[in-house]
């Protein structure tokens, strides 16, 4: 009877010397409800809680059986109390399969339980046998009846305590007990005839009471090892899966909004984010490239950008060709060259700015007021004078085939520069 | 026209580019041959163009991918740069039926293996720097032709 001894030891640790003196139901239920917070506070994950539940199970059930030989109670009174946690557990099972993921936040509610269990218990117990007269036969116990049972139990609780604490307590009990309840129910289904037989003898001697107890423990262990453990693992795994699958999807829904009809898997979300970024860059480029303001459409804008870059590179080619042909006398200082464009393009269109203000490498060109910062690539369409100068210089100095000078190629970014290609 | 000299930031891209480019032009002028043949002009044109790109890239620094690519390319291919330049200048004209992305990737230095979003970023910066480059070169040409 090592299991009995274990149970007794555990029970002694828990309740001390109050086994024989107190009413059995009160002891059992107190031990139950004091065990639940212990498990709940010590464990955060469901698996640990299940481990704690094993202890709880042992305390909750076996103390009753061990109390049977104390002789203070009639078998009829023992049986419903025996049934009471049973029904409670089976209900717990029923509730648990539905509510398990949502009750994960109960751990912080746990410390409220001992006061409830210690203070207001007897009324609850007294109100209970009314509802549990039915489930004397543990095999016939069905979920609906068990649910009724729990509803009665909860109603009793509401009578005793205030509603919120009661709800927390009942939920705590539900969650902490839940895998155990399944096992318990199964065990009681298997071993119920002998249990009932023993309980119906009204004053069972210890050897008889220990015999089904032993057998019950065996069955319990068997169930625990073979079936219920697996089932508990399944339940735990299911709960974990549901919690892990529910949370990231929620996060995704929170962070990236998916409109109606849009795909919600991670690839399409990432693709949508990328497309948004691309459109943002496109808008930035649209401000940069002249003549691109009224264009909507990515392909046309890409054409514009390509043409503009090509025209700028052709301007560089053309200017370097021109610099190669002329004989530059570069004795003048750089400031003069730099200030020349200011004077040259002073008072020109302020729309031609954009280099100094838009440079992302944080070079704001402080020497030049932004309005007078002329951009040759953007200026010539609005100012024919430098273009004419350019044409004169080009025609006079170079006799080469640059018929379309770069400023004129900027007039129509689609037209001349493409023809030039 | 030259009476008013605005104070210029020596750290700006524009002034840095101008300084480097003028220095490169002076160096090229020193080594300039007497012959003004077409071939010599073409060679000078290539060198000036490479000098302008290189000075712009070095003015930008290694912060940007396109400037890094330009500098790396110039450093690596400086020995065969005339041959490579011809190839590089011929290639985009043959690739007309390429996709637009690919065209843009070929236009932006170092943009072949870039992500598209980053390519657009680099394109924006490259356009700004090219504008500055064109403007400064234009000013220099104006200054020299005057």
Automatic annotation (TrEMBL), chain A:
Keywords: Nucleus, Transcription, Transcription regulation. Residues 1-22, 168-191, 401-421 are annotated as: Disordered. GO terms for cellular component: nucleus. Residues 405-421 have a biased composition (Low complexity). It comes from the Eukaryota. SUPFAM superfamilies: HLH, helix-loop-helix DNA-binding domain. Pfam families: HLH. InterPro entries: bHLH_dom, bHLH_ZIP_TF, HLH_DNA-bd_sf. Its main location: nucleus. Coiled coil: none annotated. It is found in: Nucleus. GO terms for molecular function: DNA-binding transcription factor activity; protein dimerization activity. SMART domains: HLH (SM00353). PROSITE patterns: BHLH. Residues 262-312 form the BHLH domain. This is Transcription factor bHLH74 isoform X1.
Automatic annotation (TrEMBL), chain B:
GO terms for cellular component: nucleus. Its main location: nucleus. It is found in: Nucleus. Keywords: Nucleus, Transcription, Transcription regulation. The keyword DNA-binding does not apply. Residues 11-77 form the IBH1-like N-terminal domain. The keyword ATP-binding does not apply. GO terms for biological process: regulation of DNA-templated transcription. This is IBH1-like N-terminal domain-containing protein. It comes from Olea europaea subsp. europaea.
């Amino acid at each position: 009877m090592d299991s009995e001894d274990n149970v007794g030891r555990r029970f002694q640790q828990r309740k001390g010397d109050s086994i024989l003196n107190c009413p059995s139901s009160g002891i059992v239920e107190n031990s139950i409800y004091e065990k639940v917070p212990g498990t709940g506070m010590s464990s955060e994950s469901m698996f640990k809680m299940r481990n704690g539940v094993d202890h709880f199970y042992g305390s909750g059930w076996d103390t009753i059986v061990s109390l049977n030989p104390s002789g203070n109670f009639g078998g009829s009174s023992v049986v419903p109390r025996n049934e009471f946690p049973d029904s409670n557990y089976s209900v717990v099972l029923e509730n648990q399969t539905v509510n398990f993921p949502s009750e994960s936040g109960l751990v912080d509610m746990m410390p409220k339980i001992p006061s409830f269990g210690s203070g207001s218990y007897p009324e609850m117990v007294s109100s209970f046998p009314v509802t549990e007269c039915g489930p004397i036969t543990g095999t016939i116990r069905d979920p609906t009846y068990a649910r009724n049972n729990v509803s009665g139990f909860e109603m009793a609780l509401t009578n005793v305590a205030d509603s919120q604490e009661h709800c927390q307590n009942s939920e705590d009990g539900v969650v902490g007990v839940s895998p155990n309840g399944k096992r318990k129910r199964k065990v009681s289904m298997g071993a119920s005839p002998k249990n009932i037989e023993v309980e119906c003898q009204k004053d069972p001697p210890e050897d008889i009471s220990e015999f089904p107890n032993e057998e019950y423990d065996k069955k319990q262990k068997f169930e625990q090892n073979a079936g219920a453990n697996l089932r508990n693992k399944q339940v735990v795994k299911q709960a974990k899966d549901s919690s892990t699958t529910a949370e990231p999807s929620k996060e995704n829904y929170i962070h990236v909004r998916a409109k109606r009809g849009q795909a919600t898997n991670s690839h399409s979300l990432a693709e949508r984010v990328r497309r948004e970024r691309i459109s943002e860059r496109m808008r930035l480029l649209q401000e940069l490239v002249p003549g691109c303001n009224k264009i909507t459409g990515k392909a046309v804008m890409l054409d514009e950008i390509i043409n503009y870059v090509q025209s700028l590179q052709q301007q560089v080619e053309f200017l370097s060709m021109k610099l190669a042909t002329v004989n530059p006398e570069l004795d003048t200082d750089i400031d003069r060259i730099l200030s020349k464009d200011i004077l040259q393009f002073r008072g020109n269109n302020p729309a031609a700015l954009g280099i100094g203000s838009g440079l992302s490498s944080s070079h704001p060109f402080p020497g030049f007021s932004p309005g007078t910062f002329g951009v040759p690539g953007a200026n010539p369409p609005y100012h024919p004078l430098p273009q004419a100068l350019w044409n004169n210089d080009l025609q006079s100095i170079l006799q080469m085939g640059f018929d379309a000078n770069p400023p004129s190629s900027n007039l129509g970014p689609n037209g001349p520069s493409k023809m030039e290609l | 026209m030259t009476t008013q000299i605005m104070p210029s930031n020596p750290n700006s891209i524009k002034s840095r580019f101008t300084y480097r480019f003028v220095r490169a032009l002076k160096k090229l002028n020193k080594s300039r041959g007497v012959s003004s043949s077409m071939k010599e002009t073409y060679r000078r044109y290539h060198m000036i163009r490479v000098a302008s790109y290189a000075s712009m890239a070095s003015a930008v620094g290694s912060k940007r991918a396109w400037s890094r690519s330009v500098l790396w390319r110039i450093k690596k291919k400086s020995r065969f740069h005339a041959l490579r330049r011809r190839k590089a200048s011929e290639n985009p004209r043959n690739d007309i039926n390429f996709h637009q992305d690919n065209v843009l990737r070929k236009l932006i230095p170092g943009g072949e293996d870039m992500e598209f979003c980053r390519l657009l970023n680099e394109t924006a910066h490259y356009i700004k720097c090219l504008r500055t480059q064109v403007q400064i070169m234009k000013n220099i040409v104006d200054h020299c032709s005057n």
